Amino acid sequence: MSKENETQSSQYNIIAAGTKMTGDITSDTNFRLDGQINGTLKCRGKVIIGQNGAMEGTLECINAEILGKFTGKLVVTEALHLKATSRVEGEIKTKILSVEPNAKFTGNCDMSQANGPQPQNPQLKK
User: Fold this and answer.
1) Where are the domains of the chain?
2) Radius of gyration from C-alpha coordinates of the chain
3) What does the alpha-carbon distance between residue 12 and residue 5 come to, in Å, rounded to a whole number?
4) What is the pTM of this model?
5) Dihedral in degrees, nearest 10, Cα atoms 40, 45, 48, 49
6) Which residue among 42, 51, 53, 98 has its CA within the 20 to 30 Å range from the CA of 83?
7) What is each CA distance from 9 to 25, 41, 49, 66, 77, in whole angstroms?
8) Which pLDDT tens digit goes with each residue over 37-84?
């Protein structure tokens, strides 16, 4: 992997703790949420919702790791990881789902082919 691609795959757009946003967000790079979003997030990379992060709305991405709270519709093209501290309510559509002990999920899950965003750069998937 070239140094430029390595840098792009490790870059994250960050919504820091204490920040609240309402509206639609589109990102071509990985995304980390430690604050709060109410709206729609479409990402062509990986999304991490940190332990103190929260989102209500629609999330579409390639891969996701949830440590905090999510309420709404999750469309994850590849793999969704619900960590032990996660609280998810709503609808999940993904190809791969992993759930750690103590993670909470209430809702529906469809593990047929997820039709979410496709990676712009294959390096962003991981």
Assistant:
1) 3-101
2) 13
3) 13
4) 0.83
5) 0
6) 42
7) 19, 18, 17, 19, 17
8) 999 999 999 999 999 999 999 999 999 999 999 999 999 999 999 999
